[in-house]
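Review box. Two proteins, two foldings.
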Amino acid sequence: MFTRYNQTFTGMFKKPRAVVESFIYSEKSDFMHPLLFMIISAILVILPAMFLVNVPIEIHSAADNSQEAQLKVLSSWMASVDLRASTQFLPLMMIMLLVPMLTIAGVFFFRNETDGFYSNLILNSYLTGSVIPVLWAAIFVWIYTGEAIINPQISTAVPGILIAVTGVWIYKNYFDITDFPGWIRIISSFTAGYVAFLFMKGIAAGVIGYMIFAINRIMEIQS
């Protein structure tokens, strides 16, 4: 399994078109299935991040039942979930949200270079699986910075730079970009997809944080 994983990972940086088209057009690909590839990459990052990266936001029960006190608890839950979604569980959010956002952007920007939605979906699935392990560099930054991880420049900008540089490089190799308009197209596509991903991630984190707060609140009332 790990031999095929390594073959797929290295192939995406050397000849990404061979990896993607092997899965799309061949009955039996020599490379790992894109979904399994993303899952293994996510596990390799999420597990160490959970043990090594500290999320300094603590949740305390409200001292009273006033609306102001409950709003502070809700705000803490939402901030905690958002920080974890941007750090420890970022690979999971990338699989769930980055892949479709990049795919939608790719359908627009690469409509003449790919065979439609499915080709873009497979390309961006393999791309995401290849980008996730690069977040190990972000883990070291998060460990070193300690409680400063709550700063968006550290929790969001650092992985964003790593993801963007790696993702654009894979696009460049896949589409064999050699001219300036080509660079503009792949950068625009990735930027549009990644900005949409950040927006959707923020919404998802807010909803999850609110649901956790509501469940805990119900349990407190019933106890």
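Next protein.
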Amino acid sequence: MVERDMSDTLIDSHRMIRFDDLERVTAAFSCDGKWIANGARVSFSPQEHVGHLYLDGNVHASTVHLVPSRQAPFTGTNWQIRLNEGGTWSLLNQGQEARMLAGSGHFVSLGKATLIDSFDTTRWLLYRDLGGFRLRPCMRDSGWLALRDGQAVLTGRDEPVTRTHYWTITPFEPVV
């Protein structure tokens, strides 16, 4: 199923591009010729730094950082992606139910699912457009997962979309 949002604009340093086909991803999807389905293990890289920075969850501190490698000690770069009812996604750090990517306000952390009025800080909406993939928590007033000052943050809901809002999702293959 594809849901379209006609309101987003991507602004980069050279021009403004109107995206008329922002698609909500609500089922298994293909990314660079690789199939990503419910239960797949993936890594997330900010699109501007693909292969140089990875989203890493620290399960002991319940924090999320960007790190330069998927090799030890950065074991939290392994995320299990789960498809929920309603076409939302949960991102379990290292496959642990109690350590999911959570977003609330401007903060991104690891947390456990807690339902609040049918919305959940650990359920994410995944979108794709001509620029790539974007994520936002299901909370009504949330912004996009973005890169700011070297950290993963949630932008304000009405902030313009830039290259820092795009993420590369790749199947996780442990680096030996």
